[in-house]
Specification:
Strand content of chain A: 5-15%
Largest interface: A-B, 46 and 38 residues
Number of helices of chain B: 6
Largest sheet of chain B: 5 strands, mixed
Mean pLDDT of chain A: 87
Oligomer: heterodimer
Helix content of chain B: 25-40%
Structural class of chain A: alpha+beta
Low-confidence stretches of chain B: none
Structural class of chain B: alpha/beta
Number of strands of chain A: 10
Helix content of chain A: 55-70%
Low-confidence stretches of chain A: 299-305, 632-643
Strand order of the largest sheet of chain B: 5-4-3-6-7
Radius of gyration of chain B: 25 Å
Shape of chain A: flat
Chain lengths: 643, 179
Amino acid sequence: MIAETGLIALLLAAVFALLQAVFGLSALRPGGEPLLRAVRPVAIAQAAMTVTAFAMLLLVFARTDLSVKLVAEDSATTLPLLYKVTGAWGNHEGSMLMWITILALAGAAVAIFERRLPERTLAATIAAQGVIALGFFAFLLFSSNPFERLPMPPPEGSGFNPLLQDPGLAFHPPTLYVGYVGLSVAFSFAVGALLTRDVGPAFARAMRPWVLGAWIFLTLGITAGSYWAYYELGWGGWWFWDPTENASLMPWLAATALLHSVSVLATRDGLRAWTIMLAVVAFSMSMVGTFLVRSGILTSVHAFALDPRRGAFILILLALYIGGALALFGARIATVTEGNRFDPVSREGALVANNLLLSAILGVVLIGTLYPLLVESATGEKLSVGPPYFNATAGPLALILVAIMAAGPMMRWRRDRLAAIGRRVAIPAAIVVVALVVLLVALPGLRILPLLGLVLAAGTAAASVAPLWKRNLRRTPLFTYGMVVAHLGIAVSLAGMASESAFSQETLVAARPGETVHVGPYAIRFAAIDPVAGPNYTAVRATLVATRGQGAPIALSPEQRSFDNPPQQTAESAIATRLDGQLYTVVGEPVPGGRWQLRLWWKPFVTLIWGGGVLIALGGALSLLGRVLPRRRAKPERDGYAQ
Amino acid sequence: MSLRTIRILLWLPLLAFLAILALVAGGLIRPHDSAIRSQMIGRPLPAFDLPSGRGDTARVRATGFADGRPRLLNVFASWCIPCIGEAPQLLALKQAGAVIEGIAVRDRPADLAGFLTSNGDPYDHIGLDDTSGVQMALGSSGVPETFVIDGKGMIRAQHIGAIGPQDVDDMLAALRDAR
């Protein structure tokens, strides 16, 4: 009965989504005003039904109801409870249901909390949200029903991909999805504003918190995903330019650009068309990313097998939504009156440069991600575009972007003088020069990108706190602190990336128990290797004892796990985190002669990468609080170092 | 730029999107070859020399496979649940005349004896692969997996996962082809 309840809730949700779209759009017609009031409750009802359906899915997974096809295919009675529950979204149908649950919740949140947007634009926005939901409900109901029953329940389920059996799965996909799908709100805002032709500072101020909210989750999701890949895949890397990672990076780049352009629109009423465009692009990238990855068109660890019929269904939805929004843009944006103009040397100018660079990086990543597809359709050859392309193209662009980001907040709105800017950036510039000289003298062999990264990180760290310089810290608005913390986070993260790339040391040896190997400052004794049995796997566990100088020994136990349902081996790395870096150990295959492959890395300051990511998200959160909490002071924001 | 040019430019994003859409649609329609061909097919068995899993002093050697008789090489373990599922099929194959050699991964003779008693024993010999070394060298990533080895000791086919009732005929055909 649980599965049937879920299915009925899903059907009702689809009906509410249809009503939401019809009411919202009819409200825009002359005489449709009475419908304005009905739109909000319908959106809330839609969310309530969708959440019910998702709760039912969690329930059938938690109880391992093997008569439900999805449970039989992706779970097993032997799994620990945590993975039974997270297994609900570790598959195509379940993850689509989670996706649409978040979409419905986002729509309901707009219906409940949005008070600044004009009623008509709000109705159009909620209608757009309903149209998006309707398509994906149709997709779930017609071709990806998560509640399908089996005529004969099997005695045991087929099990759950061991790579996904990790606590990270409990948090990483939901966080990322909130980010992805949260951007749908910006998309719907843009569509709503295009329908009512009401694009201006008020619209931008209403949209900004929603963009910020989605962006915070996207940032956290990417950070968590990067750390997850780092320790779970056991390859020692933190970013692989895998299509899935690109699929999460592209919406982030667009949302970051949007976040800054929406500030120009809110503060100075500039960049109207551009902001609308970015709002459309950001969510389009989310949808394209989800589709590309899930369809298996681009192969990736994250691909769930998908039949071409489902792929075609999603493709048609994307064509309708993205194509429709872009067509609306082409047809309507010329009738939106032009916003204010500004001098190139100004805060706006720097934000435009920031936007162009973010868009350029987005383009570079998009081309690299789609290129294998292009080549395959032209020549039939299969190839993959890897880190060499992305690092060489996106790397330098990102460094220039960081340099502009460092200088931007020190410029004034509307118009600024180069000489004055020069005086303000003098201290960070001096730090850059000193760092460059010190690094060139102390470490002459450093490669160019890590070198520039380290130098720039030092300068940016100094520049990012400059907006607080000589200010009354208690009267500084929260969103300014948000900007400072987020920019500082970029500097911290960049320092971690550059340090990891420049100073990492790796040792790959075949060692016998009892032997000692060295990596970085550590001497590591291979103490023992033992078989162990987990709840649903068997493993060999190496015991390593690492010592550094006279310090206390650290015990590390990396494992090589063999799962039998489905059969697969995974390497469980063991990591020791210290203030100045991480010791990362993996035990590999046995080598004849009683020896075992050990991979050991010493990665100085690698944790800064994710620490920076968390800081960036924290900055976003401060900014969001600053925007939605009652103003702490009445001073107009354009005078200060507003974001 | 004239207003006219700007009006036309505003449709560029839509055109770019349609181009990407066409590309992706092409990728979707094109038939996919998702079957993974084992890299080991056509190669000789990797060298190995394993102790017997039956408690006797016999050895199971790769060189023993090159005696002119095609064989099945079944990688299994007593702790493996799907291996219990495929045991009837292995017995059926043996009945049909197949010679089956086993490699037990990370196993103990006592556990093996119990497994064979309850599920039947289709194996001519069983080698103990305590470290998964042979399993790895075979390019096998899990248990059970079954290889078809021809009379010269070359790998001719690899079946990943348990042998189901529907696979028995294919397996026998592969053995005939390997003659």
